[in-house]
Amino acid sequence: MTDKEKQEYIQKLRERLDEKEDKNNLSGIQEDDELYKPLQFLRVRRAKKHWKKAIESLKSANRLYLDKCYNNCVSRSYYAIYQTLATILKEREAFPYNNRSHPAVLEEFRDHCLDNETDVNNFEEIVMSTLRRMRNKSDYLSESCLRNDAKKVLIIAENFIKSNCNGFQESYNFESFQ
After folding, report:
1. Helix (H) or strand (E) holding 56
2. What does the pLDDT look like over 127-148, one tens digit per residue?
3. Any idea what the Cα angle at residue 78 is, between residues 73 and 84, rounded to 5°?
4. I need a labelling partner for 79 at 20 to 30 A (CA). Which of 33, 57, 117, 162 fits?
5. What domains lie within the chain, and their CATH numbers?
6. Number of other CB atoms surrounding residue 169 within 10 Å
7. Do residues 54 and 84 lie in contact, with contact meaning Cβ atoms separated by under 8 Å?
């Protein structure tokens, strides 16, 4: 195959992937389909992008905590977890492209990634209840988050991300607040 033929073939694959992605129809591709390997590459690349965002948000939250910007620390910690959830869901082909709202992503994670009732209950209490309440307080209410609120949320975010990083390599000192 000449270089020109390779480029044309790659362009054709990209167009097919874009078309399938626009229709949210990526899950039906089997290993023997010519799109399988490019799709796997695309999934990993997208997951890595979300992972980098999660680490960036966590680093920002850490810096904001040290700078005593507790409301913003809570907000960035929440988004670090949200971006980690998006990473995991994209890896597992379960990201809700048709509804990217926070409740939809949280629900998909709960339904596709948690194995037992204890995990579901802990996730619902910590992420869906505590962190959302604290994020709403930090972003929307007149009441401010206190130092202890920010520290608690930052530790939850660090622990959640650390336990779900699945081999993504990024330098971050997870022992900063333990």
Report:
1. helix 36-66
2. 778 888 999 999 999 999 999 9
3. 125
4. 117
5. 3-164 (1.20.120.330)
6. 7
7. yes
Helix, strand, or coil (residue 178): coil
Q: Which residues contact 164 (CB under 8 A, 6 or more apart)?
A: 84, 88
Tokens standing for residue 34: 């010519």
The token pair at 72 is 């913003």
The structure tokens listed for 119 are 């995990």
Q: Using CB atoms within 10 A of its CB, is residue 39 exposed (0-12), middle (13-18) or buried (19+)?
A: buried
With 0.85 as the threshold, say if the pTM is over it: no
Q: Phi and psi (nearest 5°) for 160? A: -65, -50
User: Which conformational region is residue 24 in: left (phi greater than 0), alpha (psi within -120 to 50 degrees), or beta?
Assistant: left
pLDDT band at 48 (very low <50, low <70, confident <90, very high): confident
